[in-house]
Amino acid sequence: MKKMLAKTLTIAAIVTMGITAQAADTIKVGVLHSLSGTMAISETTLKDTVLMLIEEQNKKGGVLGKKLEPVVVDPASNWPLFAEKMRGLLTKDKVDVTFGCWTSVSRKSVLPVLEELNGILFYPVQYEGEESSKNVFYTGAAPNQQAIPAVNYLMNEIGVKRWVLAGTDYVYPRTTNKILKAYLIAKGVKESDIMINYTPFGHSDWQSIVSNIKKFGSTGKKTAVVSTINGDANVPFYKELGNQGISAENIPVVAFSVGEEELSGLDTKPLVGHLAAWNYFQSVEDDINSEFIASWKKFIKNDKRVTNDPMEATYIGFNMWVKAVEKAGTTDSDAVIDAMVGVSVPNLTGGLATMMPNHHLTKPVLIGEIQENGQFETVWETPDTVVGDAWSDFLPGSKDLISDWRKPLECGNYNVKTGKCSGQNY
Amino acid sequence: MKTNISLVQQILQKDKGGKIVLLMLFFVVVFVAISNLLIPKDSFFYISTYTVTLLGKYLAFALLALALDLVWGFIGILSLGHGAFFALGGYSMGMYLMRQIGDRGVYGNAELPDFMVFMNLKELPWFWCGFDNFFFAAFMIAFVPALLAFIFGWLAFRSRVTGVYLSIITQALTYALMLAFFRNDMGFGGNNGLTDFKDILGFDLQSDGTRISLLVLSFLALLGGYIVSKYIINSRLGRVCIAIRDTESRVRFLGYKVEQYKLFIFVVSAILAGIAGALYVPQVGIINPSVFSPMFSIELVIWVAIGGRGTLYGAIIGAFIVNYASTYFTSALPEVWLYALGGLFVIVTLFLPKGAVGFIKKLNLKKYTEVSNASS
Amino acid sequence: MKTIFIKIILLNLLLITSVFSGKFENDIKPLLKNSFKTKEVVINQVSQKYSENDKLQTLLQALMKGDLFYTKQDKTFVVLYKKEGKIYYTKSLETQKQLEPMNKKMFKKVKTNNRLRSTIREKLAELNLFSKDRDIRYNSAKNMLKHVSQNSSVLVQKALKIEKDSKVLSVLNEINTIINVKFGTDKQEAIVKLGDYLSPQSLQALKEIYASSEDKELKELARLSIASINRSKDFYAFVEKAFFGLSLGSILLLAAIGLAITFGVMKVINMAHGEMMMLGAYTVYALQKSMPNLIEYSVIIAIPVAFLVSGIIGIIIERLVIRHLYGRPLETLLATFGISLILQQMVRSIFSPLNQEVKTPQWMSGALEINSALSLTYNRLYIIIFALLVFAGILLVLNKTSLGLKVRAVTQNRKMAQAMGIKTGLIDALTFGIGSGIAGIAGVALSQLTNVGPNLGQAYIVDSFMVVVFGGVGNLWGTLIGAITLGEINKFIEPVAGAVLAKVIILVFIILFIQKRPRGLFAQKGRDAED
User: Fold this and answer.
1) What is the DSSP letter of C382?
2) Cis peptide bond N-terminal to A408, omega within 30
């Protein structure tokens, strides 16, 4: 028995030793993007983008005289694993900043960990808003930087009177559609002229829904589809649209989740003329952009690879972080978070991106039409950049909320009516 | 108290493997608890909270694997939907934790969790009522999985759905639940699931003390689950179960009501899975419908198969091996992880039909025979 | 809104004055501007003024295709006709002469948006109503139908007189009837006649009459006509739904036939079945990549190739792994699940985790138009036929060939078959190969409908198992009936319950159905049925 005890004790010790960590002296940059599972399709690209940016920064001499060292982990499209990996990055690998997440649920999953351990996350994807955390910088578009301008374009330039809001059944489409519905009704659109439809993830049989859209659009009023359909379901959706004879001229579809990368997996012929709203297109003619595209193609060693909006958001986020660290003179979280607000870096479309006090960016909004070569042609853009709005004015729950992380308010969801700051974890 | 201990001793008497595994876990848990709470943070021996939550997760998974081994290893039901019971237990716990947030949500609404405010619900759906009470939630953690297992098992076993068919309809069950829970209209938070928990029974979920308590609780639950399962197996009922596993029709012809035995074990297993889920959620911090996915349930079967089916402690070993490997590979060699997992599945089924436990036994056997050969 | 109108009117005045300056090239100068509204006004102007001018057609067509450019230097319009890398070959719009090929940086594109293109298409339709090509005339007429105005009347009358083709005539007649309903003198007759047409425009015209007319008799006639249209529409909607169901069923059938063989006949729970489909789909991709000139035939060529690729990989898997696991179906489940993970990751490593682009051949795009209310998409139509052919083929192989006889013999009584001199190992490998090969073929079909990516297989694996179990394991007819039943039920529930609930309901239905018939729709009987 004693022998057994000793044996088990040593094994136990070894096991626990194995899981504990060691320290290091470079600046560590966490990369938390799924490399396997369903989200690998989109997220692998962003991992490579961060690696490229780190490589380039190191060539320039790193940050604060130290080299950057990427720590890549694979949360495998598994949401609880995101939280676990985030904790591992912060406590075991001791990273100073993390670039990561794509889906809202992965962000929600890591949020408590970030706030507990006071880490920094740069989140590079367009999302539903309704969030502002001290520890997260949202470098993708909020709904008012994508959805609302797109609807305005359709309403004013195309003369759309009837609206189909089609989306995958999760938070981003639900919120966006809710905001859009409130917005459209405020603009005088009748409720009977709005059709809302939700489908599950990876929905592949669009026959009935497309046929319904066709019927909905055959009343003589100009109809458009506002699509928040998520990645994988788009290909069968557009194919069905094309086959059932719905062209962009009859019923244009404006999408918020279809970018250059999604198009590269698609036969674009039937899609020509359909729209997408983003803050960046690869086709934008700008010197920094062509430089970025060239270095991306070189880094990934493939001339066919494209760039897209979340990559630009990663690019902006990375450069902002570098600038903020240099401004603060340290990688310490609190100092960097304070230094972030107000930092401006050039974006890839010839303008400036500035970090606002609500941890969102200023962004231009571009509407593009899909071309046969899988690129977008910008048909409209906002004259100025738009400030990202964390809390939508069109939702009853959030219209009284504001976010300002500067002193003295220092609150992500301050209710101007009750004067309370709720939902903070510290 | 003394009789209790002797009962436990009696149950574990001939179970050397079980004793080793549980003792080892006991030492690990104690070691981790002490190093995390008592040793200063900058010491070399300090064990981070990361390790604590990781270990807690493994323990919850081990309990789940144990539950599956009870039905698969001892009565021959290969459930490809055990993730569903785990998830239901987890959701019950999650609902309690959501209600504990109160007005600390982002919208500051005391009545409704954030996702309901955002879904424009005006009042709490009826099935959320009562979940602000811990004891009600604790009851539901066992009751909901048990009820589902009872209804499903009653229907399936009565009409003698067996073998492959049963496996596939359990898969259909968890798949259907997954699709349903993904719907935002269901009132369970859709794809985002339940998250942003603050505290449990008034204890802050982010404090080290609470985490260690949960870790210890998970271990105790695993221990309890093990003893209960072992007790059932050692009883007369357990022998009938094993007989059913080996030749169902013969037992039936002997006059046993096979359905009732199956139903009983299935329900017990579902309850254990539910408890595992309830322990998993506060330690991981999120529950989302992907736990219902058929893939998770199949992976779970692999834990048991790798550890060694039909030994109970083998299931625990399997859960630890695969999950530790997963944690390691997804950090160290992310691209290799699926190859490794896939290869593990194939190798174990081909070369280690009795899993790691069978392998170790075989090694020991060889050693003994070698020793005895040498001495003679 | 009002200010916009005023702006447009002002713009119009401006343009009208410039029109008097009198030259086509001058009139289209405003196209250089960025505003789409300006461009639209210009196009409306010039197409009225220069309807006899050949250049108008060239201009509109170039705009339509996005081939209209102007030189940055002297702002003259050119039409692009050939691209070679960065070199553009252009013709001058004014002189129609070829110009020196120049770097694309020298040009700027005249951008269009889809509203503008729709206007251009309308204008082109009027120009093309008298084209020699029947299809162009038909499409023009269809386009005119979309925007019926009083102005089109003369044109339509003229076309009606010379048109011979019945399809084009029918559309022209419909336009004419709508014009009569809206602006004509004998409205009654036109209203009655319009009740026979099904297009949304006809219905719209009738609804307008019904809503606005003060003549009671007219109103009543319109009501009757609307009711008649709605009746036929309901009927066609039903047919359409049935077609959708059949189409979904045929996809399920394709996905499940292979499984019906590996699972139903050989009792191997092949979780890697979905990945066999994925390999088939990737075969199409690889073929299209290696033979970019044969896109039209790629899908046809891919069928045998995909069968071989998936089949051979299936045989390898059978020989290496499954062979050792016969009689232990649950173990095959675990091993093949492992294989499926490996195959998925392999595809990720080789082709990247991104979805790949698979082109749809021309003959598979578009729809077969039965009438304005019902059109059946070609890809679905072909896939239905294809699924049935595959089904018939496999039935033939199993029931009428010596291979099929041996397969049945081995699966029914292995020892006896061995005693009769059948090489059971070979037959096992071939059967599994056929099952996997058919999955590969299914993948070819799926590549035309959905994403070609590493996750393709997973999306269909649960569904295909449901079909086989529902239909009855070991019975191919059961698989056929099962697939089509599930497809139809799904499509008839979907409009009522939504896509997700429809699926949930089906799964619950299968679970309950299995309680009632534990061996599926067509249960195997006899001693062989007990496992």
Assistant:
1) H
2) yes
Q: Which of C99, C117, C135 is the last residue of a domain?
A: C117
> CB pairs below 8 Å between A and C: how many?
143
CB within 8 A of A1, min separation 6: which ones?
Answer: none
Reference C113, options A221, A224, A141; nearest CA is A224
B234 and chain A in contact, CB less than 8 A: no
Q: Which domains does chain A have, with CATH numbers?
A: 147-255 (3.40.50.2300)
Say whether B54 and A19 touch across the interface (CB within 8 A).
Answer: yes
Backbone angles phi, psi at C108, to 5 degrees: -130, 140
Interface B-C: count of C-beta contacts within 8 A? 122
Q: A374: which 2 tokens?
A: 């899988």
- Sort out which chain A residues have CB atoms less than 8 A from C449's CB and list them: 204, 236, 239
Residue C85: inside a domain, yes or no? Answer: yes
Whether A235 sits inside 8 A of C36 (CB atoms) is no
Reported ipTM: the value is: 0.86
Burial label for A163, CB within 10 Å (0-12, 13-18, 19+), is buried
Q: How far is CA A160 from CA A164, A215, A222, A368, in A?
A: 11, 16, 5, 17
Residues C107 and C253 in one domain: no
| pLDDT at position B4 | 65
pLDDT tens digit sequence for B132-148? 899 999 999 999 999 99
Confidence of residue A2 (pLDDT cuts 50, 70, 90): low
Does any CB of chain B come closer than 8 Å to the CB of residue A222? no
Q: What tens digit of pLDDT does each residue of B67-96 get?
A: 999 999 999 899 999 999 999 999 999 999
Which residue range(s) make up the domain with C317?
A: 236-529
Rounded distance, CA B71 to CA B65, Å?
Answer: 10
Contacts for C101-108 with beta carbons within 8 Å, 24 or more apart?
C106/C71, C106/C72, C106/C73, C107/C69, C107/C70, C107/C71, C107/C72, C107/C78, C107/C80, C108/C69, C108/C70, C108/C71, C108/C72
Same structural domain, C109 and C251 = no
Q: What's C340's domain CATH number?
A: 1.10.3470
d(CA B266, CA C142): 64
**Number of structural domains, chain C?**
2
Give A395's pLDDT tier (boundaries 50, 70, 90).
confident
For chain B, list the domains and their CATH numbers. 2-375 (1.10.3470)
Q: DSSP code of A355?
A: B
The reported pTM is 0.87
Q: How does pLDDT run across B153-200, given as a tens digit for each residue? A: 999 998 888 888 888 889 999 999 999 998 888 889 888 889 888 888
Q: Distance between CA atoms of A357 and C372, rounded to whole angstroms? A: 55
Considering only alpha carbons, which residue of chain A is nearest residue B49? A91
CB contacts, 8 Å: C357 with chain A: 264-267
Decide if C196 is inside a domain: no
**pLDDT at A20 exceeding the cut of 60:** no
> Residue C530 — pLDDT band, cuts 50, 70, 90?
very low
